[in-house]
Amino acid sequence: MNRDTALIEMTQLVERADAECRVFTADEQTRWNELKTHAQAVEQPTAPLRPIAGAARSLSEAVRADGLVARMVQAGRARVDVPMDIRALGSDQALSPAPGYAVQPANLGPISTHHGIVSRLLFALASIPIAGSNSVTYTRVSYAPDDSSPSTGTGNRAARVQELAAKPESELDTQEITQALDTWAHHLPCSRQVLDDVSGLRALLDVTLIAGLLDKTDAGLFADMTSALRYTAYTPTSGDSIGDAIARAATLLVNAGAVSVKVALNPNTILAMSIAKASGSGEYLGMPSNIPGSIVSSASVPAGKLLAWADTGAVWASREGVSVVAGLNADDFTKNKITLLAEHRGSVLTLDAQHVLYGNATTA
Fold it and tell me: Can you give the pLDDT at residue 244?
């Protein structure tokens, strides 16, 4: 039954009900008029709804099926409750009735899940700029060592002397170091079209390329600092805690004339130190006071190890800062591609191996 037919039937039913009902008071007549107006308003939007099994197809059918007019006359009033079943339109998340309309999800855009190393050694090292060259050279100058004990400088022969007496002659030893500066880089080809179509994608790719580049650089930097002849071995003292080892290593460097001492440990090693408790009391042990240096948390340092240095021991020679550039590679032009290249140049220099310590943090 279409809506027009239903409306005609409804109008006819209401007119018959008007004729059959008793004479209303002014108040009842007003309520009866409101019912007719309401019935006409409801009939129009409900008529085109899809039929539901077991329910009336329209308001006019509900009036006939439920004996609305007869009950209104018998009750002597202009208001009767009519049971109705209205079908709801659901989305793809609705349980019942079945999903009817798919709502498009909100787009948060690309999100990088590469978050890089926590606190890099590279950022803790003092940096010296290098310009106009791809290598550096420097000369280590120290007092000449004893032939029988190369680690002990005996060339310093300063002493108290008598007036007019011959003064002792000291002896220096020099070592010239030449070191090439490393290039650290990687690249990523990508479509120009996808960069144009996806807002924020280029910025995300730049950040991700830089983070990956610095992660690899930091790992290589640690390997260089702990390679042969570039550090002095640190031997932990039996019974020392991690905090004891930090204080002891920093003090060893300061006693050797080091300036601006830093002690780097793995974040898990620092955590073990932070939550260590006194036996039986449950009180946190904490850190020793007045440590002559600062603590660096770096994932580049293996767990359980300790790497300490001073600005007089190791520095970062920076030839070129980190950058990301876009260019064409091979047939990129005909493929409408661009290549993103992340690069920087530099190396860690060991100025004085005596001012770099590396070893186990504890004997345990």
Answer: 93
CB 263 within 8 A of CB 246: yes
3-class secondary structure, 28: helix
DSSP run (H or E) holding 338: strand 337-350
pLDDT band for 50, please (50, 70, 90 cuts).
very low
Prior bond of 267 cis (ω within 30°): no
- The pLDDT value recorded for residue 290 is 86
Q: Distance between CA 235 and CA 250 in Å, rounded? A: 13
Q: Is the pLDDT of residue 279 over 90?
A: no
Rg (CA), the chain: 43
Share of residues in the chain with pLDDT > 70 (%): 75
| Token pair in block for residue 16 | 């018959």
Task: Compute CA distances 320 → 108, 119, 129, 341, whole Å.
Answer: 35, 21, 8, 14
Between strands 294-297 and 135-143, the pairing is unpaired
CB 64 within 8 A of CB 16: no
* Host H or E run for residue 318: strand 314-327
Closest C-alpha to 123, from 273, 338, 298, 255: 298
Q: CA-CA distance, 180 to 135, in Å (whole number)?
A: 4
Cβ atoms of 48 and 87 closer than 8 Å? no
Say if residue 357 is exposed, middle or buried (CB neighbours under 10 Å; 0-12, 13-18, 19+). Answer: buried
State residue 11's pLDDT score. Answer: 67
Whether the per-residue pLDDT at 158 is higher than 50: the answer is yes
**176 close to 199: Cβ distance less than 8 angstroms:** no
Give the amino acid at 8: I
* pLDDT single digits (tens) 306-340: 999 999 999 999 999 999 999 999 999 999 999 99
Q: How far is CA 182 from CA 21, 120, 221, 317, in A?
A: 102, 18, 10, 10
Which conformational region is residue 343 in: left (phi greater than 0), alpha (psi within -120 to 50 degrees), or beta?
beta
Alpha helices in the chain (DSSP H): 3-20, 26-46, 59-65, 68-75, 121-124, 192-197, 201-225, 242-255, 267-274
* Residue 283: band (very low, low, confident or very high) from pLDDT cuts 50, 70, 90: confident
